[in-house]
Amino acid sequence: MTTRILIAFYSRNGSTEALAKAVAEGAEAAGAEVRLRRVRDIVSAEVIAAVPGWADNASRMDALYPAPTPYDIEWADGIVFGTPTRYGNTTAELKAYIDSLGGVWFQGLFNGKAGAAFCATMGTHGGAESTVLSLYNVMAHLGLIIVPTGYADPIMFQAGTPYGAHAAVDGKHVVAPPEQDLQVARYQGRRVAQVATALKTLRG
Questions:
Q1: Residues 94, 99, 105, CA angle at the centre, nearest 5°?
Q2: Which residues neighbour 193 within 8 Å (Cβ) at sequence distance 6 or greater?
Q3: Which of 10, 44, 60, 165 is the Cys-Cys partner for 185 at CB 3.0 to 4.6 Å?
Q4: pLDDT tens across 26-40, in order?
Q5: CATH classification at residue 193
């Protein structure tokens, strides 16, 4: 049976979206079926309209990616969360989706599945590691088997973090992550798919 990977991410200007797509490419290269899902904005339309480009980006991404649902958790063998940093932590948007999953958590539908995380920041030292590690806490409570990136691929000695893929962009002039950051994300997707496949076999 095909291994199935859910990538549930939040992106405002497209940087985290680019990483999510690269993670998907890596997982698909490892033979997995992938669902890309963008969690929805939770602030008011007035707040969104006050930030140049936010509304247009949100409309574009919402047209491309359905919102994640609890059923996506049941469907998936591996779950990868993606987020921009917010003061060294995950976004409220992604956390709101996670906080809505109490029902599937209670049913044990996370248990024994692979879990991973990645993020984008507006600076080299913008809280990338603490943001990914904040999602490690969440994944431990959910019962996921956490899959770090580690240093099992040469690209990890050039970019990323040992906890998860990361891209630093300024968010105004540069939105697209550098190629080496995308390479880390592709490696992360492959790694999660491989571990998820092994765990799926164990779960029967």
A1: 120
A2: 3, 5, 26, 27, 30, 31, 32, 78
A3: 165
A4: 999 999 999 999 999
A5: 3.40.50.360
